[in-house]
Amino acid sequence: VVDCIFGTYLMKNNIMSYDAIVGARYYGVGNEYEGVSIASPIFAFAILLNYNKKLPKWSIVIASIVILITSAYPTMGANVGGAISQTAAYLLFIMLIFDVKLDFKKVVLIGLSVVGVVGAFAFLDIVSGSESHLGLFVQQILLNGPSTIIQTFARKIGMNVKLAQTSVWVNILLAGIFIIGIFIIKPPKQFRMIAKKYPMIFKGFIASMVGCIVTLLVNDSGIVAASTASIYILIPIIIISINMLVLENKDND
């Protein structure tokens, strides 16, 4: 967040960030840290809420808005995919922690919120004249019509297919899909215990999973972003499950 405010200098020179030399990206938040910015805050919020009952939930709303703005604002993070994924994941997490019952209307509300947030940042981009890829994308739609949207998504799909064949990140994503799939299809006792013993953390897992899926669908390097985001789901689940097994064995002894 701080780095985005001051021009993403650290982001540009980080070994885990985008490579300007090969033309992957030249400014803002890269896809690697997009995944981090989706799942890491949610996991941190979930931990704080789970162990600090006095923490006001509205503070999570404010923190989420700040992170979203710094990640997506045209002169800061300028990451459209991040704006879409963060809005969906953060809003879902906020609904879950406030015990809002999810139904079709709430899902539609999340979708409309995503459209509204992206539209707002696109407007700010055009007005400010920063000419990030979001503003240019909107201008292309106005000039060439809806076909631009189809072409853009086709390019994103093609890039993800290419990354699936060449990037090492796909291995992390596949491992994540496999492990998460097991927990969803045939959840072990430990996973059910996590939901019961650590309800806020479990809600964080759900919101982060949604963020992974959304970023995989809307980003041209969604595999990379989804992989880095899944780290904040897989490792905590594995560690918590192992700790539960150890404690259970000690109790049995």
TrEMBL record:
Protein's UniProt keywords contain Phosphoprotein: no
Keywords, alphabetical: Membrane, Transmembrane, Transmembrane helix
Segments traversing the membrane: 33-51, 58-76, 82-100, 107-127, 168-186, 198-218, 224-247
Name of the protein this chain belongs to: Uncharacterized protein
Source species: Romboutsia timonensis
